[in-house]
Write a structure and sequence with these properties.
By secondary structure, this protein is α/β, with parallel strands linked by helices. The longest helix is centred in the first third of the chain and has 20 residues. The two termini are 26 Å apart. The chain is built from ten helices and twelve strands. It has a domain of 190 residues: NAD(P)-binding Rossmann-like Domain (Rossmann fold, 3-Layer(aba) Sandwich), CATH 3.40.50.720. The strands form three sheets. A seven-stranded parallel sheet has the order 3-2-1-4-5-6-10, with helices on both faces.
Amino acid sequence: MTGQVVVTGASGFIAGHVIAELRSHGYRVRGTARRPVDGLDDVVRADLSRDDGWAAAVEGCDYVLHVASPFPSETPKSEDELIRPAVDGTLRVLRAAADAKVKRVVLTSSIAAVSSGHREETVRTEADWSIVDRSPIYAKSKTLAERAAWDFARESGMDLVVVNPGMVLGPLRSPTAGTSVQVVRRLLARDVPASPKMGFALADVRDVATAHRLALETPSAAGNRYILAGEHLWMTDIAAVLAGEFNSLGYRVPTGSMPTWLLRLMARFDSSIRPALDFVDRRELVSADKAHRELGWTMRPIRDTILDTAHSLIKLGLAPNPSKKKVVNRGTELRPEWTD
């Protein structure tokens, strides 16, 4: 199967890997972004907060992969700063796709739309939905955006597939990859003295990209959602993997446990830490059995994912060795994107 595919938010972490996956399988790819994208000539300027550009973006295309979504590096002052762009932006893309009569839309949602707000600890599947009234802002935005997409698909007859990744790590393709890799960067840089009791169900960005292609190509996937995530790992587990690989090279990855009261105190002075409070003292238990069974999706070992993330951060100069007295400033930084 080949054809013309639109990937929204083409400058982002996940989208960059999705584009590479599609092109390696013979697809022609057009991206949407708010700025030029390295290595992609066919880019249409389009913004989730505006109607302009979306008709041109999907014109003549067979498929749309809607990957773009706001992912905050800090807790927004108002819920609408995140929820409205997520919901309205999704509907803008779907309306344009419907008008262009594309064959299928694949929407990137999140397990934040599956497992948030539940008080009982049990393994969640695609049959579960997050409880909006008990969810943090990001989970609310993902849940409401996905529900809006399914409502639109039912009303319009659109062929829609949704993928729900967990916490996405993996090698960066550029130094502006977004916020999801900050956990690894902070541990390598020893920005935190120890690991708080928080954890994630992880997925490798390369495996997530493969799942997008499989969701596009599998006829029976129409009308389904697919969780893409492995087992829950505490931050101390991630730290142990990093320490075993890098501490002998001069890094000082902290492997101890941080009391929750200290994390909350740090968050009062560092707003970038505040979103992490939503993950404290809870396990992210989800099942990707449906994706394995119906899409033929597989995951690489999480240890490889963690280490490949770290190596790419180091290569890009985003996680300098703290034992070195002099660190070269390569003019790179991690910035929040609308595309993770």
